[in-house]
């Protein structure tokens, strides 16, 4: 079995008194490609933010096995990114190289070449000087992927990378995700389209605030598991107490 890159032990994350992720245990194996799925409000974005250290844990522990912050590439949901910032495509992509330059340092020639290659990898040659505010949603998502390509992370976390994105761009971005997978990186993406997960993601984590199942996609996305996730979502009580103990068979392993 592959080594673990990221492991979660009884992780609970709450907003005030309202738990959004509840007693989640399991692990992302090194080189795995995982779709994170679940109903709206299931805690998928919250989980990624907790992994990034942006939210505190109410219980449990996250182990980022030997990963430095620069080894983790994170793409938040599009709605959380301010596109009014006056910056060009080329400069936005170059931000992906932040770990290779000093505070006031510019990119080396090698870095500039790598940035150009990253822009080309996402099909945006010729757009380098364009302000990001003038891009379509799909073009902007390509820019964010180019930034990740340049960052060269070992673990890539993507929050709804295909939301509001056209089919052509989705196909191109899926190809980049598969290239990352082929290079041995660990990738996890929140995806809403179950058919897409079945086709492109070998592993799946299904959550409905509490874990439902985590493992090979064909096993996880069973009719029964999907039914259970829907039923759990319908039963949500946002005024519930912070935490109730999980039933022992709720904790799932990768
Ligand atoms: N900043 C916040 N403050 C308070 N509650 C929040 C906050 N962010 C999310 N929540 C709540 O936490 C729960 C989980 O939200 P989260 O965004 O993690 O779910 P999700 O699975 O990513 O949903 P979606 O698929 O709709 O994006 C929801 O009930 C949501 O309303």
TrEMBL record:
GO terms for biological process: zinc ion transport. Residues 6-234 form the ABC transporter domain. This is ABC transporter ATP-binding protein. GO terms for molecular function: ATP binding; ATP hydrolysis activity. Pfam families: ABC_tran. It comes from Plantimonas leprariae. SUPFAM superfamilies: P-loop containing nucleoside triphosphate hydrolases. It comes from the Bacteria. Belongs to the ABC transporter superfamily. Keywords: ATP-binding, Ion transport, Nucleotide-binding, Transport, Zinc, Zinc transport.
């Amino acid at each position: 079995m592959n080594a673990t890159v990221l492991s979660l032990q009884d992780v609970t994350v709450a907003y005030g008194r309202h738990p959004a992720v509840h007693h989640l245990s399991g692990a992302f194996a090194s080189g795995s490609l995982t779709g994170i799925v679940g109903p709206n409000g299931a805690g998928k974005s919250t989980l990624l933010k907790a992994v990034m250290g942006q939210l505190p844990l109410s219980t449990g522990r996250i182990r980022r096995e030997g990963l430095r912050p620069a080894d983790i590439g994170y793409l938040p949901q599009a709605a959380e990114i301010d596109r009014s910032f006056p910056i060009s495509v080329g400069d936005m992509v170059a931000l992906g190289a932040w770990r290779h330059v000093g505070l006031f340092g510019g990119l080396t020639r090698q870095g500039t070449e790598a940035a150009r290659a990253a822009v080309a990898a996402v099909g945006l040659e010729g757009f380098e000087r364009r302000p990001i505010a003038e891009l379509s949603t799909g073009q902007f998502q390509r820019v964010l992927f180019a930034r990740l390509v340049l960052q060269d992370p070992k673990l890539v976390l993507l929050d709804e990378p295909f939301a509001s994105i056209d089919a052509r761009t989705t196909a191109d971005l899926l190809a980049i995700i598969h290239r990352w997978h082929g290079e041995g990186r660990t990738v996890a993406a929140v995806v809403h389209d179950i058919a897409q997960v079945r086709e492109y993601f070998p592993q799946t984590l299904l959550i409905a605030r509490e874990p439902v199942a985590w493992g090979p996609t064909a096993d996880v996305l069973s009719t029964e598991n999907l039914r259970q996730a829907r039923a759990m979502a319908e039963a949500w009580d946002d005024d519930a107490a912070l935490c109730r103990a999980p039933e022992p068979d709720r904790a799932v392993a990768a």
